[in-house]
Amino acid sequence: MNKTPVSVFIDSSSWISFVIPTDSNYLRSLNIFQLFTKQTKIYTSLFIIDEIITKIRRVLDQNEADKLYRRLISLEKKRALNILAVSKGDVNSAMNLLRQYPTPNTLTLTDATNIVLIRKYKIETLFTFDLDFKKFSSPSLTLLP
To answer: Do 84 and 42 meet the contact criterion of CB atoms below 8 Å apart?
Structure first.
């Protein structure tokens, strides 16, 4: 990607790669995070925070999970990160999206809520290492990397 995205939704796979140095995508995530500027509108969701805190607790420990959570909340307070709530209506829309991609598809409810929120807030870029999202790439949604 040559230009800095105006808005980006960060999926759990990207946060996890950024935080865990032994992750196979660690260096790629560092390079991509460096593309973002103060003008980049960065989004994630409460569902994503649930996933990353759970993973960090398992792979690292509770202390690292606490540090990450405090950092995310600090970024939100500084308006450098928008943490989006997921409403019941968003979950209903996500369930409708899942019905369009029935099993054995590996698309999760959280993945589907990401797409719902991206569409709802007109976010132009999704930063994820999850290949399930390739099917959602379009002129209105760019995937990183």
So the answer is: no
- Which three-class secondary structure state does DSSP give residue 41? strand
Model pLDDT for residues 47-78, shown as the tens digit of each residue? 999 999 999 999 999 999 999 999 999 999 99
Rounded distance between C-alpha atoms, residue 120 and residue 115, angstroms: 8
The token pair at 133 is 């999202």
DSSP state of 10: E
Comparing 37 with 135, the larger pLDDT belongs to 37
| Structural domains of the chain, with CATH | 7-144 (3.40.50.1010)
> b vs e for 101-140, b when ≥16 Cβ sit within 10 Å of the residue's Cβ?
eeeeeebbebbbbbbbbbeeeebebbbbbbebbeebeeee
- Contact (Cβ atoms closer than 8 angstroms) between residue 83 and residue 76: yes
